[in-house]
Amino acid sequence: MSHVLQIRDLRVEAPDGTVLLHGVSLDLNPGEVLGLIGESGAGKSTVALASMGYGRGGCRITGGEIRLAGTEMRTAPRQTREALRGTRIAYVAQSAAAAFNPAMRLERQILEVPRVHGLMNEAEARVWMTDLFSALQLPDPEHFGRRFPHQVSGGQLQRAMIAMAMAGKPDILVLDEPTTALDVTTQIEVLRLLRDVIRRYGTAALYITHDLAVIAQIADRLMVLRNGREVETGPTAALLDTPQQDYTRLLVAERHGSLTASQRMHNPGKDELLAIEGVDAFYGRTQVLHDVSLRLNRGETLAVVGESGSGKSTLARLIAGLLPPARGEVRLDGARLPPELSQRDNAQLRRVQLVYQLPDVALNPHQTVGEAIGRPLALFGGLRGRALKDEVARLLDQIGLPACFAARLPGALSGGQKQRVCIARALAAKPDLLICDEVTSALDPLVAEDILRLLLQLQNELGIAYLFITHDLSVVRRLADRVMVMQTGRIIETAGTATLFATPEQAYTRRLLAAVPELRTNWLDEVTAAH
Amino acid sequence: MTLPVFGRIPLSAVFGTLILAGTLVLFLFGPMLAPYGQEDVLGMPFAEPSAAHPLGLDQNGRDMMSRLLHGARMSVGVSLTAVVISFCIGVPLGFLAALRGGWPDLIGARLVDIVMSIPVLISALVVLQALGSSLPVLIGTIALLDSTRVFRLARILAQGIVVMEYAEVARLRGEGLWWMLRREILPNALPPLMAEFGMRFCFAFLFVAGLSYLGLGVQPPFADWGGMVRDCQQGILYGLYAPLFPAGTIALVTIGVNLVVDWALAGRTTIQGENR
Questions:
Q1: Which of 140-179 (A) contact B at CB < 8 A?
Q2: Between chains, do B172 and A321 touch, taking CB under 8 Å as contact?
Q3: Contacts for B270 with CB less than 8 Å, ≥ 6 apart
């Protein structure tokens, strides 16, 4: 028995009969890490869950075989499958916060696996758990398990989740985007420890991600999936250097492009559009912005970067009028913007528009695309009837969607199309300032690439200023004229994009820049060695 | 908003629609279809079903089928009117409370809490005793009491929707109250509200029955289904069918309403939208 997991011609169907996987095959050797990559809907998670003999949300495994530790998972009785889960194969979810029961201490949830399966006695299990905590460099490994999930940080919780998966000493870990929800600086830490643990205990892994640079650091082999079919499989370095298929080439090129593209040629205006002076803001009693000041010229792009909790989204809400500042003021074209939304007049509302991170919840599911885009046109531009319809069609054309989309509801659109509609809705108000709050982070890399290109093109055509909030530094490099780095509600550093990337002044900025994964397979080792 | 078009109507929905259509016919034409008057005493109390009286006679010797037919208008009419009024009061106020927040919300919510802390039957008894039991008072009382429940649901639903980003976008556009209520909140709160409507309608049936039992509901000699269950309930002790007929009609209408509501809700049970 050379393979720990063997999948042959796996077919999975959704409850409505849609085929999710059209015959996927893979082999996993002991101690090997196989990366599954592809965009959403490619079938990555479906493959991973099927390897545990599980179909999510009523999905059925309709064909093929899944051999796990010599057992055919498809035909095995339920008890057999359940006995193998946790002991032979274990799952690490993307969001540890959602996977842990908030009402139970960590140790109780982690020790549950060895207890339920009767793998070891209580004392042995505790020793093993402490070993794992030490290996994952969790603070105070002896007592770490006494904490509740809300008492540890996001990165620690994700590591605790890895410990929980390892608790049953499985042969295979199924890792479903385990670092995607983390900040860049946390991600590299978790990634490094995860790799160490896998190597130390010789565990094999199926690693699912859409980020090529992340998977390049950890996987021995890669399998590219698209629309439920295998595109190609190969050793990591070979696949990244010489991709055989067009689709893989596109993926690799996108990642390379986003990393190496130089500062674009762009001449922003010289007149000041937006100025923020010494702003403090609070959520309840907690101060979230400390003395923030910034300036933004017409047609300029200012990127605001920082980890979650750094106050970058709060800044967006403050400018938009959703959160009145406790001190300081916001000026648009030299005129003070009233802090409260209700005090702003139509023109002030029109000139500042916001595009959100999640297009799914930014569009009313019961309004058609035409209604969503047409409303600001009617409200601010006073357009009616024929003129309104024509303008909606023009805007749809501008964002690269056919005019017939006006009649569709958001439910019939893909994520990228929804985000385009959100942008069109903002453009309909003819804004001077567009605040983009993580507009690409919920999208697949290739789709995000399209959206960025659209934003660049729109700025060239319309001369809108962008306040671009993001944690993705590769986006910043391509889009921004200037960058502002924020940490815990304060501005740490502001500089021209080229200057900031070449000579960052603050230690925090350097750490942030160093944490962006690169496509070279030995990048993680270099970063680890540098520390 | 467009009505969903169904290629194939599920069997349960066909049943539900048939039942509701039947109820509608009874509501409109029931008294005309009845072979006897609702007050006519025709024989021995609790007489067994016979050719002349297919459902037998009730505790006073009146024809059960005729009373059911007469009672349809009263029972369905009272419940439906009361529930429609309660939604007309509760939904706009609940939405408004969630949208405005602050002290109007606080006062509204606490007021509703106070009313809800008193058992509905007690509140209804006090009002009906004080004002006397007439149909408008009965409907008004049930509607007002029910509207507190509707208010709570509408408020909590709207609170969830108001914080959604699409509602925020509308606020950033400076949309007025009417647009927010009508276009942003209502369409997205509709599915749970429809489910609640179906349920409230059935509860109102039973509530009227309870009040009738205490002599404060629909006044005799007018027939209503709930009251008929109560009137005939001692028949149960003697193993008679009599109370089963009015109870059965209530159950049937209840099931019909819920089947249709379920059908209307199928596939649109999320309040936030797709893919969430």
A1: none
A2: yes
A3: A365, B191, B276
How does pLDDT run along chain B (276 residues), one tens digit per residue? 334 444 567 788 888 889 889 888 888 888 878 777 777 777 777 777 777 777 777 777 788 888 888 888 888 888 889 999 999 999 999 999 999 888 889 998 999 999 989 988 888 888 888 988 788 898 999 999 999 999 999 999 999 999 889 999 998 988 888 899 989 999 989 888 988 888 888 888 778 877 877 778 777 778 888 778 877 777 778 777 777 888 888 888 888 888 888 887 765 544 433 333
* Cα Rg of chain A (Å, integer): 25
The closest CB to that of B166, out of A322, A361, A429, belongs to A361
Nearest to B273 among A322, A410, A415 (CB): A410
Give yes or no for a contact between A211 and A180, defined as CB atoms under 8 angstroms apart.
yes
Contact residues, chain B, for A431 at CB < 8 Å: none
Structure tokens, B252: 């049937």
Q: How far apart are CA A419 and CA A414, in angstroms?
A: 9
Q: Which of A349, A358, A380 sits opposite B165 (nearest CB)?
A: A358
* Domain extents in chain B: 11-265
Residue A248 near residue A302, CB atoms below 8 Å: no
Spatial CA neighbour of B233 closest among B252, B246, B217, B218: B246
d(CA A25, CA B132): 78
Q: Give the list of residues 6+ apart from residue A375 with CB closer than 8 angstroms, or none.
A: A367, A425, A428, B173
Structural domains for chain A: 5-260 (3.40.50.300), 272-362+430-530 (3.40.50.300)
Q: Dihedral through CA B123, CA B124, CA B129, CA B131, nearest 10?
A: 100
Q: For residue A195, what are its two tokens?
A: 């790799």
Across the interface, of A349, A360, A425, the residue whose CB is closest to B274 is A360
CB A512 within 8 A of CB A485: yes
Determine the 3-state secondary structure of A2 from DSSP.
Answer: coil
Which candidate in B3, B166, B188 is best for mutational testing of the A interface (most A CBs within 10 A)? Answer: B166
Cβ of residue B164 closer than 8 Å to a chain A Cβ: yes
Q: Does A360 touch chain B (CB under 8 A)?
A: yes
Please give the DSSP secondary-structure letter assigned to residue A67.
E
So what's the ipTM on this one? Answer: 0.76
Question: Given CB atoms, is B146 within the 8 Å cutoff of chain A?
Answer: no
Taking the C-alpha atoms of residue A372 and residue A417, their distance in angstroms, rounded to an integer, is 14
In degrees to the nearest 10, what's the CA dihedral of B90, B96, B97, B98?
110
Enumerate the residues of chain A whose CB falls inside 8 A of the CB of residue B1. Answer: 366
**pTM of the full predicted structure?**
0.80
Beta strands A5-13 and A89-92 are: unpaired
Residues of A within 8 A of B174 (CB-CB) are 341, 344, 346, 349, 379
Q: CB of B119 within 8 Å of any CB in chain A?
A: no
Helix (H, G, I), strand (E, B) or coil at A101: coil
Burial class of residue A15 in the structure, from the number of CB atoms within 10 Å of its CB (0-12 exposed, 13-18 middle, 19+ buried): exposed
State the Cα–Cα distance between residues A423 and A358, nearest whole angstrom: 12
Asked if B173 has any chain A CB less than 8 Å from its own CB, the reply is yes
pLDDT tens profile A128-183: 999 999 988 888 889 999 999 888 888 889 899 999 999 988 999 999 888 887 88
Beta-strand runs (E) in A177-269: 204-209, 221-226, 229-235
**For B11-265, CATH number?**
1.10.3720.10
Contact A360 B184 (CB under 8 A): no
Which residue is listed with tokens 């007149």? A271
Cβ of B183 within 8 Å of Cβ of A364? The answer is yes
The whole-angstrom separation of Cα A461 and Cα B157 is 42
H or E segment to which residue A330 belongs: strand A327-332
